[in-house]
Amino acid sequence: MSATLVIVGAGPRGTGVLERIAANLPELYGEQELAVHLVDPFPPGAGRVWRYEQSPLLRMNSMAEDVTMWLDESVTCEGPVRTGPSLAQWADSVREEGLGDPELTAELRAMTPASFPSRRLQSRYLEWVFAQVLRDLPERVSVTVHATTATSVTDAPDGRQQVWLADRREPLLADVLVLTLGHLDADPGEEQRDLRMFARVNGLRYLPPEYTADSNLSVLRAGEDVLLRGFGLAFVDAMALLTEGRGGRFHEQPDGSLRYEPSGREPRLHVGSRRGVPYHAKTTYRLRADRPPLPRFFSADAMPDGPLEFRRDVWPLMAKEIAWGYYHELFNGHRERVALDWAEFDRRYAALDWGGAPMRELVETSVPSTVDRLDFEALDKPLRGLRFDTSEQLQRHVHSYVAADVARRTDQSFSADLGAFYALLSAYGQLAALLAAGRLAARDQVHEVDGWWSGFFSFMASGPPDDRLRQLLALSDAGVVRFLGADMWVEADQHGGRFRAGSSSTPEVVTATALVEARLPRPSVRHSRDELLRTLGGVEELLTADRFSHNTGLLRIRAADGRVLDAQGKPHPNRFALGAHTNSRAVAAFARPMVNAPAFRQNDAAAREVLRELAHRAGAPRVRVA
């Protein structure tokens, strides 16, 4: 007999699951036939976010050598590890023949392992990976791609899943359904609906949280004052599209800085956020010493028994881990800047608790320069406690801050920052395992993990290429971008009929005719614009403790294998889900090589359970459920 697998979402996550299906098939499924159906309106492999059809100005925030879709020996999983090339290695293999597209071929041939490629070039890598996965499947596995949208799923009388598609009347019948939906749009919340209505009534423009590549930025007029709330990657994309994308030009200066030549079609951008500064630039250098062996102090298995509180039990070990990764590189890669040998520092450091006076004394006596000491408080809130009398003072301060960040992230003498980055990645993966075990207090998971930690991690580790911040400095010099400061607030001025914004950094207030929420929508089952997810009947994650209760909006799945859970916590017999819309919280579909990526481990565990279920159903007679 045979079985049918339907995967809704054929982007990088769906491709990763299919690769794990192929790798584990010989062990768990035998010689039976398997029909696989992939459903996605966007090109398979690349999906929506990484599709070719987007502006060539939009780029990745990872270097080519730091992007892979393939497992390696660092990944701890039950299934076989099948290796493959990183984006940089793949580029080397096709450099001579090119990609058919003259513009992409030119980018390909100019690219180095340390380049930050365009998303269009990444789309070609992802499409190649998808094609390679298909080639590696045995003949008994058929794959059909449906370039359409799945609108709903229902239970068939015989227990299979009926997957309804937008372009056909009859459903696909699936023995097992896997949802790898990727990043989705969401309906606006109450505040966003109010701002949108205010804009309509007053002839203003309002853009809610959404993916910048799909946002209608054309409604923003040349020369008008536009507020942008958010200083992360969505802002960086909007900045590029509204400046260089409208004909402006950046010119390299003799001192290495950039000068911006406006086209006259740009709006005037006023940007702010909670921190009031952009995400840290990605580093462009490599470690001088060996990569720090992680995890060292923070792992899910090493945590004490019983319920855990984030600030009391978890963060001290995470901070110690991240700082250890930093000092491992500083002491081993820059020995002239420390006053103790690494073995002695490591021995004494390991014996001390994080945050206490003995730890501070060890660091201060071992690391003479304050510039070389890791200060989480200063990193987290760089404008905290600062108040400027005028906006011009704020502009100069933020400009200097960004320039210093670019200088540090492009100077290998500060490669200890990269050691901290690797420790951040390790801590991120270990925390995901801790959350999967359900040991963290509900309130802490909401406020500390989904709140503070998620923002801090993105701020430190998910920033743009350094040249994007150099462009930001040039735009600031040209008066095209103005900094609003920290703790940004926005209000609808009912009397003036305009948006108003300010911050805790300066008393000055800006009036504008447009507001852009420069951030991505939060994942939510109830508010998703994806019809299938919204009507799935799955249960959103509800975190409760004592009198605290919070609905995260995320689809509940069983951490061990990705099975969707019902209201009683019972796993669905043949529905699985992975990705940003689930409470697995490990959403990156591809990763750096050699970091034991959580998503790769999840893909393998889910694929193995899917194959066990498919094997069972392939050998079982169809039984009609009354």
Descriptive tags:
alpha/beta, globular, FAD/NAD(P)-binding domain, 3 domains, five-stranded parallel beta sheet
How confident is the prediction overall: mean pLDDT? 94
Strand order of the largest sheet: 3-2-1-7-21-20
The radius of gyration over CA amounts to: 25 Å
DSSP strand count: 21
Number of domains: 3
Using the coordinates above, name the CATH class of the largest domain: Alpha Beta
Instruction: Please give the CATH architecture of the largest domain.
Output: 3-Layer(bba) Sandwich
The outline comes out as globular
Domain FAD-dependent urate hydroxylase HpyO/Asp monooxygenase CreE-like FAD/NAD(P)-binding: 6-183
Organism: Kutzneria albida DSM 43870
Pfam family, one: NAD_binding_9
InterPro entries: FAD/NAD-bd_sf (IPR036188), HpyO/CreE_NAD-binding (IPR038732), L-asp_N-monooxygenase_NS-form (IPR052189)
Give a description of the structure.
- By secondary structure, the chain is of the alpha/beta class.
- It folds into three domains: 2-185 and 524-619, FAD/NAD(P)-binding domain, CATH 3.50.50.60; 190-279 and 466-517, FAD/NAD(P)-binding domain (3-Layer(bba) Sandwich); 300-384 and 412-461, no CATH class.
- It has 16 helices and 21 strands.
- The strands form six sheets. Strands 3-2-1-7-21-20 form a six-stranded mixed β-sheet. Strands 8-17-9-12-13 form a five-stranded parallel β-sheet. It has a three-stranded antiparallel β-sheet with strand order 4-5-6.
- The longest helix has 24 residues, at 310-333.
- The chain starts with a strand and ends in a 7-residue tail after the last helix.
